[in-house]
Amino acid sequence: MARGNNAPMIDDSTSRPTDCFVRQTPAGLYCAPGGFYVDPMRPVDRAVVTHAHSDHARVGSRHYLAAEPSRHVLSGRMAGDADLQWLPYGQTITVGGVTVSFHPSGHMLGAAQVRMEYRGQVVVVTGDYKIDDDPTCQPWAPVQCHVLVTESTFGLPVYRWPDSTAEFASINAWWRRCRDAGKCAVLYGYAVGKSQRLIAGLDDSIGPIYTHGAVEKGNEAYRASGVSLQDTQAVASLSQKPDYRGAMVVAVPSAHGTPWLRRFGRISTAMASGWMAVRGARRRRSVDRGFVISDHVDWPSLQLAVQQCRPESVWVTHGYSAVVARYLNETGVHAIPLEGGRSVGSDDDVDSADDGDGDDQEAPS
């Protein structure tokens, strides 16, 4: 994209963006002419939300704008009196002279990139995103811009995802072995987003699929949005204890090691996470198996996204921002980190071994 008259200028002496209508503040990314924040970190008057995970869609703001496909997921996670406004993918709304639109990010159902245009300058905030195939949400598509604000949760060269079809085949093969050994398979994934993707990839001819209550709540929101999932039953809804041998239980990570698991008898446990790409991560989580399934871009996908969006400047946030910015600068792409290093607040940063949504912190049900 050619530089416009109001393209962003960079003060190299401070390595911080200047002359852009979007700026970083203690409350998050702020669009000054529009008077709104993108994924604010504290309650504000007007919030534009990329997706329904709790570290991006925080409660307490007065007004919210989000992508229409996130309606059932997001509304179920907000206070009942929250003022929520919905905008379909690709449609525009003007806020204070700023043209705003949402575009699929591929992270989870309803997740969106936020495109903002003001006086010829275009800024795109990716939110969390992935390029891999996922039958439970619309795929990521590049949006050209002057400034790209990208996450970097897995922004190290070591993070390179295997083929997801092969990884799901490995999950189902593990489940069959559990069934043949008379065990119950327990697969950990975050309640909303990751778990639904996992369930969509399970072969339900192997056995029945049961869920943690928080996972089933996410399933209900997905089904209400028109997403097809295999049949599941919440463990807490069962009137009689079934024979769990040969079954699959999809649970949140915080259930691991708790008395909740005792009801399933002999079990084998597994974690599905991008962190499983690193040797030792499975051992630290004390699970039997680790499967590399992530809802974020890996290192090569992040580089591809930058190439296809063709920004003149890249702002890197939520992860290994300094590493990614340094690499991009070395390859001729102007980039700056919005944090000095690995951030603590990202939704993949629970004990450095979980992938997805912070909702696993609730008590098992």
UniProtKB/TrEMBL annotation:
EC number of the protein: 3.1.-.-
GO MF entries: hydrolase activity; RNA endonuclease activity
Annotated region described as Disordered, given as residue ranges: 338-365
Composition-biased stretches (Acidic residues): 346-365
Keywords: Hydrolase
Alphabetical list of InterPro entries matching this protein: MBL (IPR050698), RibonucZ/Hydroxyglut_hydro (IPR036866), Xnuc_lig_assoc (IPR026360)
Domain of life: Bacteria
Name listed for the protein in its UniProt record: Ribonuclease
UniProt source species: Crateriforma conspicua
Lineage of origin: Bacteria, Pseudomonadati, Planctomycetota, Planctomycetia, Planctomycetales
